[in-house]
Structure formats: C-alpha cells, structure tokens
C-alpha cells in the first residue's frame, strides 16, 4: 500500500473525528499505544481516550498545513508527521501545532496508532 | 536502555554535529535511511549527506525547546520528536522547527537514524 495514500487518508479521518466526535478516536488506539500530549505520556486505549476527551477545550477545528510520511520499516508500518493550526471556539488566534503518528498494520488490513506525539508550536 | 536517556544523548549529539561538522552526520545514517527535509524525500547515506551539506546556509545554531520520545516497538527502537529554533548566521530572527527521528539499535550497541523528517514552523 502506498504510504502517502495511507497518511493522507489517516490524517483526514483522524482530525475530522477529533473535531466532530473526539471519543470516536478510541478505535484508532490499542493497549500498547502511547500518547505524549504537550509532554506527559499516556498508555493504553482507555487512558488515551480519557486524556483526549478531557482536554480543556471542547469545540475545535484543525487546519492541516503539511503531511510528511515514510515507511518505518519493512513490515508496512508508516510514520506520519503533520503540521497545522488548531482553532478553538471563542479564541481569536489559531494555535500552531506539530504531531507525529506511528501507524501499524492490523490483521483487518487497517492501521492502528502505536505512537502519537503532539506539541503546540509556541511563537 | 532508557528511551529518554537515548533521546537526550542523541539530540545533543545530532545538533552539536550539525552546527559544527555537518558532514559528520553521515555516520548516523545507513542505506535504508530516509530524510524528508521541508517535503522532498532522500534515501541512503550518500544522498542524505549530500542533501544536508548542500543546504542553502552554512553557519547555524540549533536551540532545542522540547524533546519527546517513545519506544516504537518491542525491539529497542526509539522515536524522538524535537522542537526548537534555528539561528542562521547573519539573520536577525531564528526559525522555529520541528523534527522527528526514528532510531534503530545497531549490533554495536548504538543507534542509527532510519527515519528523519524536518519541517520549519512558519508563523
């Protein structure tokens, strides 16, 4: 499978789900998944879902600026590196962010997120 | 080995080498290594070294703001996610950047860079 096509489809799905049904992101993680969000690390689908759904903002919209991807080895896994901005409801200025995902193929011919690292880019 | 210690040591070594002896970065890559630098992808130690040493600036200094890391699987590989700023000689303003590395253990108990993705964060 073309890593660029995987990356684009994943990014489109991930941020649309984040912006419309954040709890639905739980299906993308498994129990060995890790999330680093602005530093602190969380592991496992329950803890990651709890973290994502308890962030101190509700409505938001991600705008994606760049998507880079590379195969992370010979087994079909893909690294995805995203930059963009995050508009929070009621805030005048969007926040720039960078985020990376490590996508692992599943037996169902899909992918799950093993690694997820998010950082705001402070100006 | 502690992934955080690996990440800190790698980041310190990588950017010090970049800023003082950029051609010396070649020892960190192998022939299956990939570099995405502001979009375009390069593969292999020769092509990556050529890319890094032909960037349109000579003297520079990286300042590191954040280092995140996670194990990328059960084999000792480590993902490193860096944010910081890049000061070019003669330029008034530093450029913000984000960069990720996928470090793979070598038989010599060291690591090489399999994946390297660099992006400037435009304000």
Automatic annotation (TrEMBL), chains A, B:
Keywords: Cytoplasm, Nucleus, Protein transport, Transport
Keyword Membrane listed: no
Pfam families, A to Z: NTF2
Subcellular localization(s) per the UniProt record: Cytoplasm; Nucleus
Gene3D superfamilies: 3.10.450.50
InterPro entries (alphabetical): NTF2 (IPR045875), NTF2-like_dom_sf (IPR032710), NTF2_dom (IPR002075), Nuclear_transport_factor_2_euk (IPR018222)
Cellular component annotations (GO), alphabetically ordered: cytoplasm; nuclear envelope
Keyword Transport: yes
GO BP field: mRNA transport; protein import into nucleus
Residues annotated as domain NTF2: 6-120
PANTHER family from the UniProt entry: NUCLEAR TRANSPORT FACTOR 2
Function, in words: Has a role in nuclear-cytoplasmic transport of proteins and mRNAs.
Name listed for the protein in its UniProt record: NTF2 domain-containing protein
